[in-house]
Amino acid sequence: MPWSERQTKMLHEMGIRLWQPPPSEPDAAVSIPEAVAVETAEHPSAVAATPSLGDVATLGWDQLREAVTACTACGLCKGRRQTVFGVGHQRAHWMIVGEAPGEQEDIQGEPFVGKSGQLLDNMLRAIGLGRAELPGVEGDAAAARQVYIANTIKCRPPGNRNPEPDELARCEPFLIRQLQLVQPKIILAMGRFAVQSLLRSSEPIGRLRGRVHQYQGVPLIVTYHPAYLLRNPEEKAKAWDDLCLAVATAGR
Question: Which pTM value belongs to this model?
Fold first, then answer.
């Protein structure tokens, strides 16, 4: 796809080279399936303190947000300022899945804020996407350009430590329901814990990136978390290659 002068400048600011995906990549070829069918009936009551997939399987967006806010399924609820639910278009074609909220996310209640969020926003803008609503853009056009962003867990681990397996497992039903409600056409998994949760794989990101995976029939691209890229700027070129692969896959 052609890149505008503005996008080229953004890539230059990110310190990554401009790259176009080759016209044909047989190993990455994927036929995008129909969106995952979900139930949308409203659940009559709030979810239990320890959620299961069955508890949240019929919740709509408002009740799901309330259930996340009220959740006390693990010890992370004791130290949080607030839960970090998600942001973006609720039927976005692209869904970004990150890891765990950090300090700024805990303060603002939104995933991917601060410096890592700025880098993610720059990366998305470079391919014509964003998290915010676009004035005058509605319907499927808005869904195609505005992403939905969520984390694997909704509460900040103390001291920004890695989430523990039990914490990931207890929060997973919320993420699964978000994926069901959004019905994305492509998923971008950013960071080790997002990848492990969605792909059930302990393989390092370096071995999983560069090809198209599947989650419930939806194409999934693995890439590095923006916070990792800030610590390791030499890896930004690889992250850009991953975005280009996602663009090529989504366009098929």
Answer: 0.80
